Structures
1.
Amino acid sequence: MLYSEKVLDHFSNPRNVGELADADGIGEVGNAKCGDIMKMYIKVDNGIITDVSFKTFGCGAAVATSSIATEMIKGKSIDEALQLTNQAVVEALDGLPAVKVHCSVLAEQAIKAALADYYRRQGIDPTPIVGEVHECDGCCDHEH
């Protein structure tokens, strides 16, 4: 299995790792059965994601996709963050092996889950804004 230099870099030196103690939204996706769990923490100020961090339990690709996804949404508006697709995450890493593409889907879903949590804390129904968040959509159908 070949990983790009960017994947290896983000795996070896992940950005924005850890918990945000005073996070405005926390999203957790994945499950222990499939082996990848991502937790995303966001700080929001006037509709802008001012800070973001993650904790990931999983393979190197899961760590790398979480890391680059945090970089891609930091400083961006909520609207921009909601536009982030797993395809954009894969492209930013210069590609992923096919069996690891589900990791980028998890990264996208972790961001959406954190934003959904942010809206719920404001007393706003997140579904019309964020859409359905799939905890572990299709990532459990294969072996790691």
2.
Amino acid sequence: MAFAATKREWMELYTFFSLLADGYVYGGTPDIKQNERLKIPVAMMVREEHDGTRRYVIEKDEVHIVGEKIDKRVLRDDFRTVAGLILREVLACRENDVVSPDSVEAFLDDVLIYDLAAKTDDRTDFSVAFYDENAPLTGFCVRSRLGIMEPLLDGGRAANFKFEQTGVRFSAPTVNKINAQGGEDDVLERMFMIERLGGILRYNDVADKIFRSNLSMIDLHMGRLLGEMTRLMWLDGITKVSDLTAAIKKLNPLKIKDELINKHGFYEYKMKEFLLALANGMRPAKLYNGTDSAIAGFMFVTTEGKVLCYQRAFRQTFADFLFYNTRFERASTEKDKYGYLERENGAYYFKLNLKIGLLKR
């Protein structure tokens, strides 16, 4: 019986099957092209299933699958065929939910795969042993432009920044009138109204103490930098991280010397370090001590279905890829509780939320 799954779930399985069929993966360039000089052999893959951990050892013509309830060999060409069928269905479907072709469902039953998206505690989708099956495992997450991509940072209320409202003292009715502003750009309308009435929003702090401490591990002023970039995103409509960084260099909110900005690339460096930390598992509400998580990189699927590898082992390329292919996004004001004037200890504060996602194209 056919079943439906999201494109994101199908593309995780597509990536997994493609690597098993090919037995290699190409490294990606910062501009999401195949690095022809970096063809990395894949010797074994490990994936969590309903019955525990499965090992998929890539042999000459077959994949040897070993798990608690399975020990069998499957032709690599079979994985290639099924990966192609999945890609065809995903490309042909305009909806986010894609119905499985009968032949794909039969193959999944044959290899005892019941979870299209692996359920792991460390947030990886699968692990890979490169070059040799006894090599250390590298944990990966799949990100695909053919489906809805999970944000790089979707921290909820913990990722809010506080701006103190100064300049003039608003009465309670005025505050209520500001907060009542609605519409598609309600947050921006409130910010403009505060300015029109003589108010000034000055960066104050990171709202959550854990996220504040996490950011301080990268730089003691990282909270201010990200807060000002978030404000700039709302006011000027700039969303790409690389463009926002170029704009913030001109504003120089941290008041650092020109030499540090231009010769050392201070703002670019700090943003790349922050993005790498996010990609490697930093979360706003969880203590971060700089230790790398199980996530060591992304398997990134292009709009044509090519799988590209970005990993911690090629740090600069990974950092550049993130820097040029991420953007600030608008989160839900209701869910993340920001975009309103709120009274706290006799003063009014306005919160903005930080959400970062990968570019769709």
3.
Amino acid sequence: MEYTEKVMDHFMNPRNVGEMEDASGVGTVGNASCGDIMRVFLKIENNIVIDATFKTFGCGAAVATSSMATEMVKGKTIQEALTITNKAVMEALDGLPAVKAHCSTLAEEALRAALWDYAQKNGIEIPGLEEPKEHSH
């Protein structure tokens, strides 16, 4: 299985690792079958994601996609954050092996779950954001 240089870089030197004490929103998603659990913390002020961190238990691709997703979301508005898809994360990493594509989906879902948590805590509706689904696969 071949990983790109960017994937290896984000795996060996992940950005934004750690729990955030005063997070505006926290999203946790997991895939029981492969054992990956991803938690994303977002700090949001004036509709802008000013900081993002993550904790991921999982394979190198899961760590790399979390790292890249948190890098991509910083400085974005909430609406822009919703445009960060698994495809965008994979492209930013110059691709992932097909068997690891689900890791980038987890990263997208964790971001959205954190945004959902933020919306719930603040009693706001974010157009285009749906309640996270529980995963059974």
4.
Amino acid sequence: MAKFEEGLRYSESHEYIRVEGEYGYIGISDYAQHALGNVVYVDMPEVDDEVTAGEEFGAVESVKAASDLISPVSGIVVEVNEALEDKPELLNEDAFANWIIKVQLSDPSELDALMDVEAYKAHCNE
């Protein structure tokens, strides 16, 4: 059974963002990691790359599927979770603790277009 975390914003493509000040930590939801199965590889952008809301910034590969990562917001990548390079399975262990990229938000108003936890639960149950 997928876990849902309060206080995050979610996209329809199952990415989440945890906002802390002008920064956002972006990862895949627990629902997404369950759907993917055993994650074997995470393709991430480089630090200083620009991401755009609604556009691809990387991919997650599992034993059964590959899935594009779609950025929920626009901004500049300030950090990538290097632990995932050697241990992509961390996403299966705890998707919310193991974010993929940290971005400096360029337009915080984009967060308004994302779902809160209740709306995301409803989306997952459709």
